[in-house]
Write a structure and sequence with these properties.
The protein is mainly β and 471 residues long. It contains 1 helix and 33 strands. A 6-stranded antiparallel beta sheet has the order 22-33-24-29-30-31, with no helix packed on it. The longest helix has 20 residues, at 3-22. The mean pLDDT is 97. The structure holds beta-D-fructofuranose.
Length: 471
């Protein structure tokens, strides 16, 4: 479809939908969410000339997946965001089924996007082109076309380029699927972002000591952190175990050492990045002050997603809060970025005593730090709970599609929890970020508080968080 027709449809979608979406009681107060329609992966996360830019997979025309666009927000502080002109619309033959996920770099002073042009055929097959687009002075993007056609020896499932610069060369990791339907990560090099050389497969099923490990690894990201290299990826097709891999698709990381010369990435074990329910397709960037920050999508496709109650209001899914990463003893730690503290409305409320005597606390848009040493339970708006029995921290919620209770688990020695709560999401940071558990949930709007239970002592610090709308 032509750009003009798509933009006319976008206008109608926003004119009819925006007020309805804003009136949803489950509308997020301070997480980034689509004005209308469906949002999925964070794309092109970068800090350029003092501003953060975050692009996102977007279907502004319906609450379902389909021919994706790239929406675009920018911010000086990761808290106050503004809408930017829509960056990419699927108008060209080489991207007609969607401008799929990708990344951003700064090249010759311009933000340059590298994304997947996805093409689906009527017989169910598909192909993919890795494409470029560059920033124009008015904040729109000009497409430069495909630079990598479908590589030989792979199926049509090749996507999600993540590009960075190292020692004067551009490098890319790219998700691909071999003809025997196994997930692989390809590694490329370029001098100019135009001509790319495939150096080889650096990770995937049957590589680096892995056996069967899924049929597709979506959204790779590879970056140095605290002296090592970390590969984030989203393997699809891992069998669920009793306490692990409980979501339909996984999202996790490997720690290793990238050898640029040999194009090898020997790595350790796979760890899940978030032990909750909805956290997928994360992407990182390095900030001017040397921090490695990450956004993830608080969604999970193909299962419960399209039964979310927000669809009645014409929007679905949102971003995670921005998280800062660090590596300690081979483990990836995640913490909410310090900028989020601006949302705290005051110095907060402190309380210490036996859990069962703790006051009920506001939980719609709030942050809470809890120090614990003994078993306790926390119920959240009668829709979710966290309980600690001395060995296992269990997050339970009501599945909004089936109505059944379902749980996720973390094992270890618990000392502290930090919860970031919004109208329909909870993000839990365990022991200063040693592990995370994230979930969407849709409590009745009149249920607004959390309660503690148990006889052990808890020490609490609670803040109300301000709403922060995109401007
Ligand atoms: C991950 C993903 C990517 C793809 C995009 C399409 O959620 O499937 O692999 O590029 O979403 O929207």
């Amino acid at each position: 479809m032509s750009e003009v027709s798509l933009l006319k449809q976008l206008a109608r979608s926003l004119m009819t939908g925006q007020l309805i979406a804003a009136s949803d009681p489950h509308r997020q107060q301070w997480h980034l969410a689509p004005a209308v329609g469906l949002l999925n992966d964070p794309n092109g996360f970068i800090q350029a000339n003092g501003r953060y830019h975050l692009f996102y997979q977007w279907n502004p025309l319906a609450c379902r997946h389909g021919a994706k666009w790239w929406g675009h927000w920018s911010s000086a502080d990761l808290v106050h965001w503004q809408h930017e002109p829509v960056a990419l619309l699927p108008t060209e033959d080489y991207e007609i089924s969607g401008c799929y996920s990708g990344s951003a770099v700064q090249n010759n002073g311009k933000i340059t996007l590298i994304y997947t042009g996805n093409v689906k055929y009527t017989d169910g097959s598909r192909t993919a082109n890795q494409c470029l687009a560059e920033e124009m002075p008015d904040g729109t993007f000009r497409k430069l076309g495909p630079v990598i056609p479908l590589p030989e020896g792979y199926t049509g499932h090749v996507r999600d380029p993540k590009v960075w610069k190292h020692d004067g060369f551009w490098y890319m990791v790219l998700a691909a699927q071999s003809p025997d339907i196994k997930g692989k990560i390809l590694f490329y090099r370029s001098e100019d972002l135009q001509q790319w050389h495939l150096l080889g497969e650096i990770a995937g099923t049957y590589l680096n000591g892995l056996k069967e490990f899924g049929y597709m690894w979506e959204c790779p990201d590879l970056f140095p952190l605290d002296g090592q290299d970390v590969l984030l990826c989203c393997p699809q097709g891992l069998a669920a175990e009793k306490y692990r891999y409980l979501n339909l698709y996984q999202c996790g990381y490997f720690v290793g050492q990238l050898d640029y010369q040999q194009a090898k990435f020997p790595h350790g074990e796979f760890h899940e990045l978030d032990l909750g329910f909805e956290f997928y397709a994360p992407q990182t960037t390095e900030t001017a002050d040397g921090r490695r920050l990450m956004f993830g999508w608080l969604g999970m496709p193909d299962e419960n997603e399209l039964a979310q109650p927000t669809i009645k209001y014409g929007w679905v899914d949102c971003m995670s809060s921005p998280r800062e990463l660090s590596l300690r003893n081979g483990k990836l730690y995640q913490q909410p970025v310090k900028e989020l503290q601006q949302l705290r409305q005051s110095d907060g409320f402190r309380w210490q005593g036996s859990a069962q005597d703790a006051p009920e606390l506001a939980a719609v848009s709030a942050e809470i730090m809890v120090e614990v040493s003994q078993p306790f339970t926390l119920t959240l708006r009668d829709e979710a709970s966290m309980s600690w029995d001395g060995e296992c921290l269990m997050l339970t919620r009501r599945n909004w599609r089936t109505g059944e209770q379902e749980s996720r688990y973390w094992f270890g020695s618990l000392t502290s929890l930090q919860l970031l709560l919004d109208s329909s999401s909870l993000e839990v940071f365990i022991n200063g970020g040693e592990a995370c558990m994230t979930a969407r949930y849709f409590p009745s709007p009149e249920k607004r508080t959390l309660q503690f239970h148990g006889t052990g002592t808890v020490s609490i610090h609670h803040w109300l968080l301000s709403a922060c709308m995109i401007e």
